[in-house]
């Protein structure tokens, strides 16, 4: 039977309904809300970040703060796409206090949500923004300076390519790395058009 255009939207909405009152880890005590993924679930490309920050926790949407503005610019200027064309989500769906890095326990508690999002979307490429996103997706610790620009198979579906680059917030703190993230996005664009 032909898949209806709204099916993936409905599956993701149902998934969010299952998780919106989640208390699987301590982050629920300080969050304003669970921040689900956002964008086009029919996209070939999924971006994965770390966790919502203050603005994301307030608005209920991922990457809407300063890091999100840089991400939007890279999507438009390097990939030639619009933010609405891609899907954007996080390893942890709740804001850690003081924007600290989520703990391995928090990442594990939230992983079934991310895993299910990827199962529904079945993208061609998952682009991990920073080491925490890469660790969440690949399930192993890594050094982003060593692995950025590289491609790995997604452990739960090796046909999906996992690409790693810097987190945009890191680039905002280290502006000389902007040329590196631009180069990585150029490679990401090639990956999307390959075979
Ligand atoms: N940083 C992230 O990792 N995710 C967001 O949603 C916003 C900032």
UniProtKB/TrEMBL annotation:
UniProt domain Uracil-DNA glycosylase-like: residue ranges: 36-186
The answer on whether this UniProt entry bears the keyword Iron reads yes
Q: Which GO terms describe its molecular function?
A: 4 iron, 4 sulfur cluster binding; metal ion binding; uracil DNA N-glycosylase activity
Q: Which UniProt keywords apply?
A: 4Fe-4S, DNA damage, DNA repair, Hydrolase, Iron, Iron-sulfur, Metal-binding
What is catalyzed by this enzyme? Hydrolyzes single-stranded DNA or mismatched double-stranded DNA and polynucleotides, releasing free uracil
Query: Keyword DNA repair on this protein?
Result: yes
- Cleaved signal peptide residues: none
InterPro entries for this protein? UDG_Type-4/5 (IPR051536), Ura-DNA_glyco_family4 (IPR005273), Uracil-DNA_glycosylase-like (IPR005122), Uracil-DNA_glycosylase-like_sf (IPR036895)
Q: Which GO terms describe its biological process?
A: DNA repair
Q: What is its EC number?
A: 3.2.2.27
For this chain, the family text in UniProt reads: Belongs to the uracil-DNA glycosylase (UDG) superfamily. Type 4 (UDGa) family.
What protein name does the entry list?
A: Type-4 uracil-DNA glycosylase
- What gene name is listed for this protein? dplF
